[in-house]
Amino acid sequence: MAIRAFLTGGTGFIGANVARSLLNAGYEVRALVRPQSSWENLQGLEVEIVRGDLNDPELHRSLKGCRVLFHVAAHYSLWQADRAVLHQSNVLGTRNILAAARKARIERTVYTSSVAAIGVGEGGKVVDETYQSPPEKLVGYYKKSKYFAEQEALNAARLGQDVVIVNPSTPIGPWDIKPTPTGDIILRFLRRQMPAYVNTGLNFVDVRDVAQGHLLALEKGKTRDRYILGNQNLTLKALLDKLARITGLPAPRTTVPICLPLAVAWIDECLLAPLGKTPSVPLDGVRMSQHPMYYDAAKAVGELGLPQSEIDVALKDATNWFEQFVLHR
């Protein structure tokens, strides 16, 4: 009989790709979907949908009959006003679903953390799983919430649960429905709404490699270990140049001094938001861009066999997906 996997976050970017990888590998998939969420990313797939919430005290009932858990769901926000929501969803929600997994006798859990929980190296230094920024130095409540959620996973593993942790970097590819900040950059590039850029850098990876990395972590990962699911370190300028070659559209040539978006973001969030204006630029997002976020995925490549697909292919498939499902709707 096929192994039944319980999946959270299946309606999101990474989760939708994990769902497809699981189905392609012969798993049965039961996906937890919040009542208010759209499950457009799962339409047409042979996935059992259960409506519910990560903080449901009876969540273990939904997990009954499943052998493995992929906890991908997380609330993503860089707005400082969302601190309580981030803690409730990411930290307490992770604690609750791991407790539910114990009650339901789930055999193994793959928990989706993030490189955000690891932090960044000083001066753009490339770091791996052995590195950890002190939590008080992590920029923004989102990063802190992912750090403390990862601690919940580690605590569960110390108490005897079989939990493997994966830390995706910056995924690119299809099904970026919200979109993510990187997807938003691609969209603004396609709409010719990006006249300038900031000097920063990120580690990019094909989202389908990230999804495959989840399955590989289930099969080969070590309990309590974490694995960076990443690929190529690139400056934002290099990424935009790749987009220009793929699309034929011009890349922005002008850099923006960081003081300008910092000022705009501070005014937005600290002065105008309390007056009822919806802020346009998250202050924590700008603060993050001050430091290149570079990572080494050698452990996942060596121990799990994480694929390292060309970033150009991921970018091309992402632009095609946005053209089909977003721009021309």
Please describe what this structure looks like.
The strands form 3 sheets. Strands 3-2-1-4-5-6-10 form a 7-stranded parallel beta sheet, with helices on both faces. A 3-stranded mixed beta sheet has the order 7-9-11. The chain starts with a strand and ends with a helix. It has a domain at 4-173 and 204-232 and 293-309: 3-Layer(aba) Sandwich (Rossmann fold). Strand 1 (4-8), helix 1 (13-24) and strand 2 (28-33) form a beta-alpha-beta unit. It contains 11 helices and 12 strands. It is 41% helix and 16% strand. The protein has helices at 13-24, 60-63, 83-103, 140-158, 181-190, 207-220, 236-247, 259-272, 283-288, 298-304, 311-327; strands spanning 4-8, 28-33, 47-51, 68-71, 108-112, 163-168, 170-172, 196-197, 201-206, 226-229, 232-235, 254-255. Helix 3 (83-103) runs parallel beside helix 4 (140-158), helix 5 packs across helix 11 and helix 7 (236-247) packs across helix 11 (311-327). It is α/β, with parallel strands linked by helices.
